[in-house]
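#help-structures
NK: newbie question, is this the right format to request a structure? protein is Response regulator transcription factor
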Amino acid sequence: MKILIIEDEIDLLQNSKEFLEAENFLVETAMDYPSGLEKVMNYQYDCILLDIMIPGGSGLDILKQMKAANRKQAVLILSAKDSVADKVLGLEIGADDYLAKPFHFAELLARIKSIIRRNAQEGSSLLTYKNITVDPENRIVRIADKTLSFNRKEFDMLYYFLLRPNKLLEKTTLAEAVWGDHADQADNLDFIYSQIKNIRKKLKDADAEADIQAVYGVGYKLV
């Protein structure tokens, strides 16, 4: 799962990044309005942590730009401004939740997981498709009553597919989701093929009722 932190307090930014990476999130960062806006408009995230007061503009303006462009991404506002007006405005514009600074990382993690469950898993702690069940928090994959072993990248990619069944996903989209926003600048995307080959074999060996189908020249989809 991929998180974007838009925050200009360098210590908070770095500490948050290290904490979330230890929790197996892929974390991207931005420290001002222009770079934050560029990322939310060009890349997809499971959750965006958005500070209101950032150099060059307001986090609320980023929310407005996202809404105008119909960029539907989960947003958790982080701000030292704990006024009711800011909170209400942010939620009205499209934020999913609001967390005032200073905060405990345990609460931050709980809020992020709650937002992701509401937006992607309809409130459930598990994600199920056909006979495949994924527990994202404990990083467990089961097919029927069988538990499968996946490495970190394989798990992240399978989870990304399961959130978007039957949707065609381009190779660059998969690379960015699992390896980071600049993966599309790699000389080639052969590493995507090798990961998917491993996932497909594990699904087939476990008699999964779903498979990852290649769409020549474009990408893949879970069917």
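mod (FA): yep, format's fine, and the tokens are attached above. The chain has eight helices and 14 strands.
NK: thank you!
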